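Structure in, sequence out. Go:
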């Protein structure tokens, strides 16, 4: 890389420029998934929009492979690249809550925890994910599935506006009145269209939720899962619970006699009162013989960060995912077969309900097309030891291969590894051609291609 060019960038840049020779380089290039080990030529740690514009110009003019990093959580490591430029937004963390309009302006480097911290003080929240360290940018641009999906929709259903820097370096705003095609595309189309420097979200009155897990021994899976598929489809929209397979973590939160035992579970979140929650969930929580039922009131940020200590950055992760319309008996049998073989203590499967409020948006109203799916399935092999990389990968792939025939055919882009162009097309289904046309309009050279890539239309 010509030193003069870097010097020119430095003259326009307020943030930190980090290269392989810098002491902070190896920490700066780490992402959440330790299975990803990439070495960029330069990391541009932006502090404001002007920095982002300068970095985009630099990457484009030098024909550098360019990745955009928000929270760094992406399973496939698509916030980092080899021998290219990383535009790092991690210092752009401002959150401004406007209680009068019930909105929050959120910087592109914020995590879910940053947003929850700011909005909780006002007794409000916007739908995000289920792990507080997840980056808001990547989460939202892929759709945004989490605890509040049934109640208030996906993150994109509450996204009112974005500011972004385009591939040509221009700064634009997209909302219902300006750049409507971009506004449509960023709601589910991922980071294909520009660097989003801020998001404007609608807020809802959420402060204390009734939440926590109900665990059953994994041997009860068939009975519990059949009851769950009926229960959740009829539950009030202010009650949500995602289904999970996991090993009980060895932490004081759970009784010692359960530590390490394989379980099926429902992780609850209800915005209803304790009495209404208990009445609504009791039919499910009394199915079979639960080993533990720990549901009670807690601040919403506490739920969002409940499992953070168990899943810190730096673990090995391998992901596979699909959308699901129905959990039929054959699929339940396959789940039991493969979940019973959890290869490591941290490996798990989650099945997130995405009905309720999320179903009231049409399949072509946003780029996120799977409005007819009822669940988002994700299978994750997780372990701290790199020696177990092959073990967790094989288990995850085998599990996915067994369940894929029962899926809706495509996956949530935030849960995908690098799986090829056909899987990308399957994720967007009938919206892909429209996305490709918008991509051609705003990024015909496919500058933003380190993502689940939508190629510019013909």
């Amino acid at each position: 890389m010509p030193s003069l060019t870097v010097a020119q960038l430095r003259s326009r840049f307020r943030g930190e420029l980090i290269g392989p020779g810098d002491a902070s380089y190896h920490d700066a290039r780490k992402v959440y998934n330790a299975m990803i080990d990439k070495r960029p030529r330069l990391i541009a740690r932006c502090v404001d929009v002007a920095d982002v514009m300068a970095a985009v110009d630099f990457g484009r003019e030098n024909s550098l492979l360019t990745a955009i990093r928000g929270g760094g959580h992406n399973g496939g490591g698509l916030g980092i690249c080899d021998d290219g430029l990383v535009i790092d937004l991690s210092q752009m963390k401002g959150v401004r809550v406007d209680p009068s309009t019930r909105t929050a302006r959120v910087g592109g480097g914020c995590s879910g925890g940053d947003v929850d911290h700011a909005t909780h003080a006002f007794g409000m929240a916007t739908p995000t994910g289920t792990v507080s360290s997840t980056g808001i940018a990547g989460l939202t641009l892929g759709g945004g599935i989490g605890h509040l999906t049934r109640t208030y929709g996906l993150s994109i259903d509450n996204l009112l506006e974005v500011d972004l820097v385009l591939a040509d370096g221009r700064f634009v705003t997209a909302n219902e009145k300006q750049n409507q095609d971009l506004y449509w595309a960023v709601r589910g189309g991922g980071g294909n269209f520009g660097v989003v420097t801020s998001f404007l979200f609608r807020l809802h009155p959420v402060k204390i939720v009734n939440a926590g897990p109900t665990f059953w021994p994994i041997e009860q899976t068939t009975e519990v899962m059949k009851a769950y598929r009926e229960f959740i489809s009829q539950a009030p929209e202010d009650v949500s619970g995602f289904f999970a397979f996991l090993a009980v973590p060895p932490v004081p939160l759970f009784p010692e006699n359960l530590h390490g035992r394989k379980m099926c579970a429902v992780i609850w979140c209800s915005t209803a009162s304790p009495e209404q929650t208990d009445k609504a969930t009791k039919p499910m929580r009394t199915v079979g013989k639960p080993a533990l039922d720990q549901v009670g009131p807690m601040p919403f940020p506490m739920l969002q960060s409940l499992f953070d200590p168990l899943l810190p950055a730096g673990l090995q992760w391998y992901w596979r995912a699909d959308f699901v319309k129905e959990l039929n008996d054959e699929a339940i049998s396959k789940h039991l077969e493969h979940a019973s073989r959890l290869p490591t203590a941290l490996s798990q499967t989650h099945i997130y309900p995405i009905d309720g409020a999320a179903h009231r948006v049409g399949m072509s109203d946003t780029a996120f097309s799977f409005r007819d799916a009822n669940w988002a399935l994700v299978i994750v092999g997780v372990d701290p030891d790199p020696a177990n990389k092959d073990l967790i990968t094989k288990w995850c792939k085998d599990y996915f291969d067994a369940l894929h025939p029962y899926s809706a055919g495509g996956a949530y882009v935030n849960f995908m590894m690098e799986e090829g162009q056909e899987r990308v097309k399957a994720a967007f289904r009938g919206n892909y051609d429209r996305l490709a046309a918008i991509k051609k309009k705003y990024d015909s050279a496919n500058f933003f291609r380190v993502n689940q890539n939508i190629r510019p239309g013909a």
